[in-house]
Design a protein that fits this description.
Number of strands of chain B: 12
Largest sheet of chain A: 2 strands, antiparallel
Largest sheet of chain B: 4 strands, mixed
Strand content of chain B: 15-25%
Radius of gyration of chain A: 26 Å
Strand content of chain A: under 5%
Number of helices of chain B: 17
Number of strands of chain A: 2
Order of helices and strands of chain B: HEHEHEHHEEHHEHEEHHEHEEHHHHEHH
Helix content of chain A: over 70%
Oligomer: heterodimer
Order of helices and strands of chain A: HHEEHHHHHHHHHHH
Structural class of chain B: alpha/beta
Helix content of chain B: 40-55%
């Protein structure tokens, strides 16, 4: 579930690159020992004699700059791109929250006006409540499901690769395709789910049309669509748990359940925490599911923060209000991102 | 240059490309200036949208041909035609980035907001040169009038909501397709009979998502003799917490829950309902005449299958489309743009020639709307349309016959915000059997009041 796409978030890319490796146990001997990876710019430098000390240092510094020049150039391109497409929009977005903008006239500063209007909108609170509810439900389904799947997949002797692909397959579907597919599943008339219920003589459900079920239905779609990525991360982490630990546990006569409890979960604690945080950050930005499947209904039961933001900006054309909303969301997500950074840093 | 000794050519090239790309990206934007658009030969280039997409090759070819004809007749004007219309998702970005067309297509829901935000040019002083404008229906022109009394655009299309119905299903259910319902009570009876055919057939369907529920509920309330918003002492107030509002909700509730003639799937929008109609599973839905060609084309069905009735009750909601002008457009461009719009869309002189050509193509001639003109111009147009009609006009006679009894009312101010609120009302009625109608109306009215308080 944590695999909700967040392509522009640097924190996200960071997690994808790092977490499996960091938590991955010592890889096969020799691959990463202190001897195997020696920094290339350290070894060749000969110990400088007392006489030519200053000259050697300057030369060394110059060489470093020279060697890193290409790196800096590449970095510059990246920094420019980030500045243009990430940082500038963020700063501009925050500023817009304090302005009334029409883009036809110069923007007008309105102070906290947009925020006041935002807090006065009764839907503002509803949207946050709904988003919180979605996030909570997503944790219940989306946090446990990939973990369980990963553990089961890891235990399999045969068909592992095939099943791994099957689990990952939904991630590759464009999200709108996923939504339309699930729309048919949920259709109260000829839909798949109600037909299945019918086989078991169970009453048909109003999956998307009932205020109580709608959000659960959206979380199910989202979980199905995104769990592949998280499952793969867990699988990688599981593969990294040293076999000796399990062997020792088995020798001690530990059951599967106890092995899971005393070996797997403690070994994966860190990665579970990270995916949990990323999932909170990701699910708080839920948009496609309610936008395509329910349009926020029934009776505002699935209006989420991002859906409301979208309405402000693109239905009402009120960019000031939308920016104020996104600033609030930015601050809330920033808190979670801060916790995430602190966790990864302290571990590192 | 031994400083570069450790750097390979390829590395250098790579970083240079990366930098160049970065710089190019910073450089773009703001390229289109706001010049007068007149070149040294005195030719004005004016960008307009509304060109059909490539997926409609016939329509597009025709459009391009018309551009050529227009340019031949107006050697001092060059048309830079672009696809699309006023899309709220990109409008502000295009305006901010200087990419907005000089003349842009809008629905009737947009002008009020665009005028209020000063995102459209005042064209009042250019209008005296526009032929036939005095015959364009005043109610349609008023949509583009600002609170300051100035004019910001021209209407080019209009519709009013009626009932589109499936003639084949009517026959199958023992109903007379030439005598469609004229009251909501009759709609209810017909819907019950049609849904009784079984096999997933739905008697009547309505929207309840993405502001379309609110749009239709507005029309429901109008038809019950009510209003959605009214002005008192210069201030707008919600007006739907009324008898009319209650009657509308009760009718929907009864069809949905008592008769079960509205199907089980709700949270529908226009595309869903058109699909139901196109696949022959739907008896009736609320729609304007322009829906019929869409269904016929999209689902490869026949014009003969569909009928059009006027909306029951005393009034219906009317809307339409037109063109507005970029607030940064030069006077030359505005003048040129106006000539194009008049020539292409508001031109009784070209009507016969046009219609003659279109009737042989795939373009429907003889639908009851749009009616842009009043008086002589419209009478002339109607005669031409009747002469070249390629759709069964008799099927739309029930709509035409009652059109004088059904008043056409425009959309309320801040329509989109109100529609969002009314969407929720529509959703509750259609998804909750025990919905408290009074409570729904009262709550929604309170929210609507705060939205209407911002209307200037």
């Amino acid at each position: 579930m944590a695999g909700r796409p967040l392509p522009t978030s640097p924190a996200r890319a960071d997690a994808r690159d790092r977490t499996p490796v960091r938590n991955g146990a010592p890889a096969p001997a020799g691959a990463s020992g202190p001897t195997a990876k020696t920094s290339p710019d350290r070894t060749p430098v000969p110990p400088a004699g007392p006489a030519g000390r200053g000259g050697a240092a300057t030369a060394r510094r110059r060489r470093r700059v020279r060697e890193n020049l290409v790196a800096y150039l590449f970095l510059a391109a990246g920094v420019i791109c980030f500045a243009l497409f990430s940082w500038y929009p963020i700063v501009r977005g925050i500023l817009l929250g304090f302005q009334q903008v029409t883009f036809a006239q110069p923007a007008e500063w309105v102070g906290l006006d947009n925020f006041r209007r935002l807090f006065e909108d009764p839907l503002f609170l509803t949207a946050w409540k709904n988003t919180g509810w979605f996030t909570l439900l997503a944790l219940v389904f989306g946090f446990a499901a990939p973990f369980a799947t990963a553990v089961v997949l890891n235990e399999l002797r045969r068909g592992k690769a095939y099943l791994r692909m099957t689990v990952y397959l939904p991630v590759m579907l464009p999200s709108v395709v996923t939504m339309l597919l699930w729309r048919w599943f949920y259709d109260p008339g000829p839909g798949l789910f109600n037909n299945v219920l019918d086989v078991f003589h169970l009453p048909a459900q109003q999956w998307l049309e009932s205020e109580n079920l709608a959000m659960v239905s959206l979380v199910l779609v989202s979980t199905w669509a995104n769990m592949g990525t998280t499952t793969l991360i867990y699988l990688a982490a599981l593969g990294g748990i040293p076999g000796e630990l399990y062997e020792a546990a088995e020798l001690d006569g530990a059951s599967i359940r106890r092995r899971l409890w005393h070996v797997t979960i403690p070994q994966m604690r860190f990665i579970l925490m990270i995916t949990l945080l990323l999932q909170v950050i990701g699910t708080m930005q839920v948009f496609v599911e309610p936008f395509v499947l329910t349009g926020g209904g029934p009776d505002d039961a699935t209006v989420t923060v991002l859906l409301l933001l979208y309405r402000y900006a693109f239905v009402y054309n009120d960019f000031g209000l939308a920016s104020a909303m996104s600033t609030v969301l930015f601050v809330v997500l920033g808190i979670f991102a801060g916790v995430y950074l602190r966790l990864t840093r302290s571990k590192g | 240059m031994n400083g570069m000794a450790g750097v390979s050519r390829r590395q250098l090239l790579g970083s240079a490309t990366a930098l160049a790309l970065g710089l190019a990206l910073t450089g773009c934007g703001g390229s289109s200036g706001s010049s007068s658009g007149v070149d040294e030969n005195g030719v004005v280039t004016v960008s307009v949208n509304g060109m059909p997409a490539k997926t409609q090759p016939e329509d597009r070819k025709d459009f391009e041909e018309l551009v050529k004809q227009f340019e031949a007749a107006h050697p001092k004007i060059k048309i830079d035609a672009r696809e699309g219309q006023m899309d709220p998702k990109t409008f502000a970005a295009k305006l901010a980035g200087g990419q907005l067309e000089d003349v842009y297509y809008v629905y009737f829901t947009d002008p009020a907001g665009l005028i209020q935000r000063r995102q459209a040019a005042d064209i009042t002083k250019y209008l005296k040169d526009v032929p036939y404008l005095d015959q364009v229906r005043p109610a349609l022109q008023d949509v583009f009038k600002g609170p300051d009394g100035k004019i910001y655009g021209l209407p080019t299309g209009n519709y009013s909501l009626g009932l589109v119905y499936n003639r084949a299903l009517f026959k199958k259910a023992g109903l007379d397709p030439d005598k469609p319902p004229t009251t909501w009570e009759e709609v209810r009876t017909a819907a019950r009979k049609i849904s009784a055919l079984g096999d997933g057939t739905v008697g009547y369907a309505d929207y309840s998502k993405n502001n379309q529920g609110g749009w239709h509920l507005t029309s429901w309330i109008y038809s019950m003799g009510g209003d959605v918003a009214t002005q008192q002492n210069g201030k707008w107030k919600a007006a739907f917490d009324s008898d009319a509002g209650r009657k509308a909700l009760q009718a929907l509730h009864d069809m949905r829950w008592t008769d079960k003639s509205m199907g089980t799937r709700q949270l529908l929008e226009i595309a869903d309902v058109q699909k139901m109609m196109g696949s022959g599973k739907l008896g009736m839905y609320m729609a304007g005449p322009d829906n019929i060609p869409t269904i016929v084309k999209q689902f490869e069905s026949k014009y003969d299958d569909y009928g059009l009735a006027a909306l029951p009750g005393t009034a219906t909601l009317g809307g339409g489309d037109g063109f507005m002008f970029n607030p940064k457009a030069s006077p030359e461009k505005i003048r040129a743009g106006l000539q194009w719009i008049q020539w292409k869309y508001l031109n009784p002189d070209r009507e016969e020639e046009n219609v003659k050509k279109f009737s042989g193509l795939d373009v429907p001639i003889g639908l009851p709307q749009p009616n842009l003109f009043d008086g002589a111009a419209q009478a002339k147009n109607d005669a031409i349309h009747a002469k070249y009609a390629n759709v069964p006009q008799a099927n739309y006679q029930p709509f035409v016959d009652r059109s004088d009894d059904v008043a056409v009312k425009v959309e309320p101010p801040n329509a989109q915000q109100l529609y969002t609120i009314l969407d929720g009302v529509m959703q509750s009625v259609l998804t909750k059997e025990d919905a408290d109608l009074d409570q729904l109306l009262a709550d929604a009215a309170k929210r609507a009041d705060s939205v209407l308080a911002t209307v200037k």
